[in-house]
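hey can u run this one w/ S-adenosylmethionine bound, need the structure tokens asap thx
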Amino acid sequence: MINKVFAPEYEKDENGWFIFPRDVTWRRKLFPQIAMEHPSKMNMYVCQEIINYVSEKGETILDCFGGTGTTAIGALVGRSIVLMELERPYVDIQRETIKLWQERDILEGSVMSLQGDNRKLLPFPCDHMIFSPPYANDMQKKTGGALNEEIQRQVDQYTDSMLNFGRLNEFFYVQGMDLLYDKVAESVRSGGTVSITHRDRSRAGKRLLFADSIIRSLTSRGFSILAHHKWKAPGAFQSRVNEARGAKVILDEDILMFVKDK
Ligand SMILES: C[S@@+](CC[C@H](N)C(=O)[O-])C[C@H]1O[C@@H](n2cnc3c(N)ncnc32)[C@H](O)[C@@H]1O
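ok here u go:
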């Protein structure tokens, strides 16, 4: 059992949701400018608090949906970070960031950046995993002109690969995530943790609830719930995509943490 308080310095709103600041200023200080353009980055304050809560110096944390490498901030506080990412441009950003941090001599731990489909790269032995998965159809290119030009440009640039979970339809997404969770369970040591941040989506005016399916996926694979928090996410790229599609915008994001049974 973890004997710490999650995010002790942050307040909650009237719904009991954590309030974390926007991370733009902090990100600009640490990451190359190009990293700002990734459409769905994990908030750095959320990431930092998860790292502090679940892990200790010297432990290995794996992010199998690495994106621009937000989780790499763990290497600034003595963790060994492994990032997996499918898309070459994001892997390049991760590697540029590592180089920058080496030049500035601010790494207290290490970062490894692996390119490929996480279903092929896993299992990979680690103490903890922290990730934020995309969702089915998030990044479909054919949006029938529903998006404004700027948002459509970002979606188009995002990916071409059908191995990207964000481009799969719901059927193939569920199959893919099932295989992925098998490999997540194989990767994390007993007593280690998995933390997932995820925002519900809205389709046809209905809220699609994901926390339950994430909880089912991990508890059926030998994990127990450690904590389930929500935080109020400031309007992000995906909210603007959904807004442009005329959908209800969802502002709260789940932070789900699990521990692997001994
Ligand atoms: C929600 S974003 C994660 C962003 C990341 N947390 C950050 O802060 O930058 C999901 C990432 O998973 C990547 N991805 C999607 N399918 C993948 C796969 N099969 N294997 C590895 N990475 C994948 C996407 O390219 C995208 O960068």
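The CA atoms of residues 207 and 234 lie 18 Å apart. anyway lmk if its weird
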